Amino acid sequence: MSALIGLLMRLYVGVFGAIERLTNGWFLGLAARLVFASVLLVFFWNSALTKLGDGFFGFLSPSTGAYAQMLPKMMEQVSYDTSQIAFFPYGLIVLLGTWGEFVLPLLVVIGLFTRAASLGMIVFIGVMTYVDIVGHGVDTKTIGAFFDGDPYAIIADDRLLWVFLLLVPMLKGPGLISLDALLGSYYRKRERYY
């Protein structure tokens, strides 16, 4: 019996050891970035598009909707008149939040400054969650709770998965198939010649 268990253990370790060796350094970061792209890239970009002002330079002046989404209680206080909100710091927060919603997901997907972009997205999701709960006052069913057995509680469950997905490239890197790896290789070659 112990010989059979030993054989099964060697087979188990051999198979999964081979899979780990074959995927080491490239697969996990790439897979996390591709899943992020397929599930969340368009979500964040569509959200960011609602925040742009009118015209070609709309990216320089966020819409009233951007202020209402990011600063809901303040917008209520000023009767949704953005001219009554100081640019520094509030207008700047809305402007940078809008740009961040475009730029950070793109950086994660293409694998450029991936660790910093992933951390930025995690912070963004944290702020977004805070604004949804405190600013927009979503109900407890929508918020949900960890270990509640209800996978339809959008905020707690979905955003925990989003953050975990971003922890992979933040902690493990983007993988070999990324701009970070390409630029790192170029930099190392360049350093050898100087």
Binned strand content: under 5%
Number of helical regions:
9
Biggest β-sheet, characterized? none
Q: Give the ordered list of helices and strands.
A: HHHHHHHHH
Keywords:
194 residues, mainly alpha
Can you give a write-up of this model?
This protein is mostly helical. It has one domain. Helices cover 73% and strands 0% of the residues. The radius of gyration is 22 Å and the shape is flat.
List the helices and strands and how they pair.
Blueprint: H1 2-23, H2 27-49, H3 64-70, H4 72-77, H5 87-110, H6 114-135, H7 140-143, H8 154-172, H9 179-193
Question: How is this structure best summarized?
Answer:
By secondary structure, this protein is mainly alpha-helical. It has 9 helices and no strands. It is flat, with a radius of gyration of 22 Å.
